[in-house]
Amino acid sequence: MRYLMLMAILVTLTAFTPSSSVHASEFSIIAVVQDDAITNRAVSQRAALMLSSGGMANNTANRQRVAPQALQMLINESLQRQHGEEIGITVQPSDLSAAIAELEERNGLKPGGFNSFVKRQGINREALLKQIEAQILWKKIVGRRIMPRINVTDEEVSESVVQLKDQKTTREVFLREIVLDVEGSNKDELALARDLMKRIYAGQSFDSIAREFSTSASASEGGKIGWILANQLREPLRSAVQNAETDELLKPLETETSIRIIQVGKKRTESKRINENILRNLLLKEKMDLESRKYMKQLRQNALIDIRG
How far apart (Å, rounded) are the C-alpha atoms in residues 220 and 10? Predict the structure, then answer.
């Protein structure tokens, strides 16, 4: 469905009309982030959207499976909003308008078609806008607080050139990723990773799943890492990427803090002359992703987070 990419990056609270049939338990607080409360209703709604975006059945078992990831994403977004207020970074109406226009173009909607689409789908517009604002805000935070301190030195580039000097050709691959954060045991996240891979194998868009599930800085770009020099990757990822076929999904990569799903896209062979600009951009991307994750981790470590669920 051509609108799937749009839905994949949006957090929705389904249209709600107060009535006596709504139980108070639906609004019980399951986490407090500083002075911000996250309800089980919010987690349930996020989980439902994640399942929809991933093409997975919206049943009790699946909602329970993705609920931990949904909660962690909501916690991160809450911290990002509060941090933005602290350091004076805001989202302007023009930022929001530009983001919506970009979404409309990407999904084949006519200018101004976003509101009509939201209405047709019965999606809570205000909740969707809050999610878009959170994504814009995080980009601004990264741009102001992380980018200025990232530097790739000539020495680092020279070292990379030395590592490649014996290579007759420079092989590049286009990579995408989905990163699932791990808090404690990785059992639930690993099971979720396998489910997501099944959906991608079945034809679900990697882009849409990455936008909804991934916690990496690349999530807003559909998990796009971009063109990477294969020889610069660390083992065992390097060998796996070099031996992979186009559009192949690699076995989930597990670390202490995350599980990564990597999709290997097209490959290309550059000229024999090593391009230092490519190396510099590669190193910059690696540092950016690493520092963004460190920054988010630091925000979590310094915050008062009380998970009650």
Answer: 10
